[in-house]
Amino acid sequence: MHKRIGAAVAGTAAAFLLVTACGGSNGYDQAGSVAPAAQQQDAAQSATAQPGSGYGYDSETSDDPSSGTDDGYAGGTDDSSDSGTTDAASDKKWPILSVVNDAKLGDILVDSKGRTLYRFDKDTDWPMVSNCTGECLKKWPAAKPVTKAQAEAAGLNPKLVSTYTRPDGTKQLSYNCWPVYWFAGDTKPGDTNGHGVGGTWWAMAANGKKANGGKPIR
Q1: How far apart are CA 10 and CA 7, in angstroms?
Q2: pTM for the structure as a whole
Q3: DSSP code of 204?
Q4: What does the DSSP assignment read for 50-96?
Q5: What 8-state DSSP symbol labels residue 175?
Q6: How far apart are CA 143 and CA 205, in angstroms?
Q7: Fewer CB in 10 Å around end: N or C, the chain?
Q8: Rg (CA), the chain
Q9: Is the pLDDT assigned to residue 174 strictly greater than 70?
Q10: 104-143 per-position pLDDT tens digit
Q11: Residue 35 in contact with residue 22, Cβ under 8 Å?
């Protein structure tokens, strides 16, 4: 009798953990792959960071990023051809997603243009919900999704990566269950001007938590 009760409780707990990872259905990408649990292990050691392409913010933010125009960072679909972009001056590449060590923030996540990636306190990881919409997306465009295979190829833990479907149907990178953004106020690789803005925006640490423990650096 006790054995049967124990088995039932264990089975219920396991099912609960599976369903609630990243907030149930909102935490699954369209391919149906299981989203990462919020408490997964830290991302793998940093890939070597090299200076990448110029940002071109003037053109990228002239339109509402939710339209998915220009570099596709707001709601674009996975693009395996975007494995790294090149800067004419440096002629070097960034991986599609990687970790760099910032002198003040520690290991943080950057995209294929070397842009610091951020998370927003007003979002939720369970259920996974983005509360940056409309005008907010002009300053904080949604980061382009990447596949688990692309993340793993860049030396990151693929279990931390999933795709969030926004209310308008567009796709966004999520990391450790949090929707991910870049900041229009960052103008070159290495900028972290978005960290601490409004006391709600923080650079994404390699483990998916708030960089610097969610404390400002200036």
Answers
A1: 5
A2: 0.66
A3: B
A4: -------HHHHTSS-GGG--TT-TTBPPP-TT-S--B-TTT--B--S
A5: E
A6: 15
A7: N
A8: 18
A9: yes
A10: 999 999 999 999 999 999 999 999 999 999 999 999 999 9
A11: yes
Nearest to 134 by CA among 200, 180, 67: 67
- Separation between Cα atoms, residue 82 and residue 145, nearest integer Å: 11
Which tokens is 53 given? 């392409």
How would you list the strands of the sheet with 117-120, edge to edge? 181-182, 117-120, 201-203
Cβ–Cβ < 8 Å for 216, 195:
yes
By the 8 A CB rule, do 187 and 57 touch? yes
Give dist(CA 207, CA 109) in Å, integer. Answer: 9
